[in-house]
Design a protein that fits this description.
Blueprint (H helix, E strand, L loop, with lengths): L2 H8 L6 H8 L3 H20 L5 E8 L4 E8 L6 H7 L7 E12 L5 E11 L10 H8 L18 E7 L21 H22 L2 E8 L24 H20 L4 E9 L6 H18 L4 E5 L4 E5 L2 E6 L17 H13 L8 E6 L6 E4 L4 E4 L8 H7 L5 E8 L5 E7 L1
Helix pairs in contact: 2-3, 6-7, 7-8
Length: 426
């Protein structure tokens, strides 16, 4: 073996410079100088090509991560430039972290060494770059619907439809759960269609409403990446994030089409909660997608996406507060099933802050989260929990018993205190 080959071999040894020098029969100083020169020449092989080049790719299969290393002839200024230089496939990898360092070769030319950590995207992750294609495919018909003029109102009431806790994507394992709850995309679609039939039934009973309010009280989506959006709570799922997203907007698009294209009311409203402990930001994405569709297809519908924990509306003599019951990030415990002194004081502070006088207004607080239909009256307001379209998870069944799925309604008379409470069970 020649001296040069022996020298290169020493570079792979985990030994001191002195040990390697003695092995080659030279001084330590000579060995260090040779090593420095060798590395400079090795680097020059890449940087003098005058183009960006990837020199290393190492993947940790078990952890789903990879390190990519390369040379750049210009200084990268952003993550996007790093992705371009290292040719990162963004459909498979997400850039997690990176660094770059400036160097000079033996000819005093500048170059940069770039190192990046990437994380493999999970198959069930939503690829947000594809959302536009998904929405374009589902929302093909964007031609505005022409509303019938002069809808004859036969009562001075509004119908409030409280859809809550749909938990799209949730899975209840029949082999392990104490109480069965078969729930999937088909079940969800069927229950939404039953709500449409119930709306028709209530219109036949009460007549054409002045207003219909379709309220989503949160936790529309069960979670994101298999966890609640608050994090830390692993969830059993029967859909990928992408499938859950497509299911939600497809089913609800059809739901809105069936309602807004009929003369059930003179005016329509759509209010959606995006401040809930399971759905969080995923609820917001779905809500905004549906709101954009409704604003385009049905411009006569008034829409709102609720991002605060509690928000309210006024309808005639009534003030109605809407909340999921547990927020996206701050609350350790949500609002309780039954109103207590602490909760009553909490709601009264909200009323005082917003100058809502319960002596002159009929006040209701409507909440989801607990998958139960209850209604209580305090001195200042009505406190109402509403049913869940999903029903109960394995965890709920084990801790509290079986839960009936359903949908809660209110028929509110505009200029009186009258409120007719109604519900259907699935």
């Amino acid at each position: 073996m020649t001296f040069s080959k022996n020298f290169v071999k020493t570079l792979t040894l985990k030994k001191s410079n002195l040990y390697c020098a003695k092995k080659l029969g030279i001084s330590e100083e000579e060995y260090v100088a040779m090593k420095r020169k060798y590395r400079e020449n090795k680097n020059d092989k890449f940087v003098t090509i005058k183009e960006n080049k990837i020199i290393e790719f190492s993947e940790n299969v078990s952890e789903g991560t990879a390190n990519i290393k390369g040379f750049s002839i210009t200084e990268p200024k952003s993550a996007e430039e790093i992705e371009s230089i290292l040719k990162i496939d963004k459909t498979k990898w997400s850039l997690s972290s990176y660094w770059n360092k400036q160097h000079k070769n033996s000819k005093q030319e500048d170059y940069w060494i770039i190192s990046a950590m990437v994380v493999k995207k999970k198959e069930n992750d939503i690829v947000f770059e594809n959302l536009e294609n998904i929405l374009s495919n589902i929302f093909k018909d964007k031609k505005p619907f022409v509303k019938e003029k002069n809808v004859k109102i036969t009562n001075n009431k509004s119908l409030f439809i409280y859809t809550s806790d749909k938990h799209i994507g949730a899975y209840v394992d029949k082999n392990n759960a104490m109480y069965l709850n078969e729930y999937n995309g088909v079940t969800y679609m069927q229950r939404m269609m039953l709500i449409v039939l119930e709306i028709k039934y209530l219109v036949d009973m009460f007549g054409t409403f002045e207003d219909i309010y379709i309220i989503d009280l949160g936790d529309r989506m069960d979670g994101l990446n298999g966890y609640t959006t608050r994090g830390g709570h692993k969830l059993p799922q029967n859909m990928s994030d992408k499938t859950a997203f497509e299911t939600a907007i497809t089913v609800e698009k059809n739901f809105y089409d069936l309602i807004f294209q009929n003369q059930y009311a003179a005016n329509y409203h759509m209010i959606t909660n995006a401040c809930s402990n399971h759905g969080g930001v995923f609820d917001y994405v779905v809500a905004r997608a549906l709101e954009i569709y409704v604003n385009t297809k049905y411009p006569f519908v008034k829409t709102s996406v609720q991002e605060k924990f509690i928000q309210h509306i006024e309808y005639g003599k009534h003030v109605i507060l809407f909340t999921h019951g547990k927020d996206t990030e701050d609350m350790k415990h949500g609002l309780p099933l039954h109103v207590n002194d602490k909760t009553e004081n909490y709601i009264n502070k909200y009323l005082m802050y917003h100058n809502i006088d319960f002596k002159n207004k009929t006040v209701s607080l409507i909440k989801g989260d607990l998958h139960r239909d209850t209604s209580e009256i305090t001195y200042g307001f009505r406190y109402k929990n509403v049913l869940s379209l999903f029903g109960g998870s394995k965890w709920i069944g084990t801790n509290f018993g079986p839960t009936k799925a359903g949908c809660s309604f209110d028929i509110i008379e505009k200029n009186t205190d009258r409120i007719f409470e109604h519900k259907i069970l699935f």
